[in-house]
Structure formats: C-alpha cells, structure tokens
Specification:
mainly beta, Protein vraC
C-alpha cells in the first residue's frame, strides 16, 4: 500500500505502561526512577499502531521531534494514545512524512521522517 493513502487518518489505542520497562528506560537515560513517564518514552509504541506498520520495513530517518507536554503522565494510569498520519510531501530527492501522537488529549509528540526516493 502506498505510504500516502492513510494521510489524515487517526488511530487510537490505550496504553498501560509496565513499571519495569519504564524503570529500564529511566536507567538507560540516567533519569531518576519514578512513576512519571517521560514523553519520549511513548515513541516506542509507534510500531504497535497499524498506521505506522507500512514504515517498519522501510528505511526512514527521523529528522525532527517536537514535544508539547501539558500534563505529567504516570505509569499507574491507562494512557489514551492517538496517532495521526499528518502529512507526506516531496522535498527534492526525499519523501517527508509527519506523524503526531497525542496522549490523553493534551500531550503531543510530533515526528518528521524522511525517505530517499528510489
């Protein structure tokens, strides 16, 4: 399926973060152990969304990340996560893809990827 066919679509999932996995992440990045979830931790769940599946076997490069944190998130909560495929556009020899993950309707991770045209 072409990468542009799902532009504008949104998929929602509910995420329950495992405290052991969270603490491993916090240790790896030298973050004090707590139940508070760093916003970038949620990027690990992108591959669980059907909208992102077609990119898993594709060679893409992350070129930009924008974080908007409106509220703290904790591992004892179930987090509503909505991934939207925002855009795809041609930029010289590359295709640029932009995705946005909204967490609990307030926090946002927006990431831009590129892929060299074949």
């Amino acid at each position: 399926m072409p990468h542009y066919s799902n532009v504008g679509h949104t998929e929602t999932r509910y995420i329950k973060v495992d405290q052991t996995t969270l603490h491993a992440y916090q240790t790896l990045f030298d973050i004090p152990l707590s139940q508070e979830i760093p916003l970038l931790f949620f990027a690990r769940y992108w591959c669980d969304f059907t909208l992102f599946q077609s990119f898993i076997e594709t060679e893409i490069m992350l070129v930009e990340t924008v974080l908007k944190e409106a509220e703290k998130l904790f591992c004892y909560e179930t987090i509503k996560a909505s991934l939207t495929y925002k855009s795809v556009q041609q930029v010289k020899n590359f295709e640029q893809f932009q995705f946005e993950l909204v967490l609990n309707d307030n926090n946002v991770i927006q990431q831009t990827f590129i892929r060299r045209d074949s």
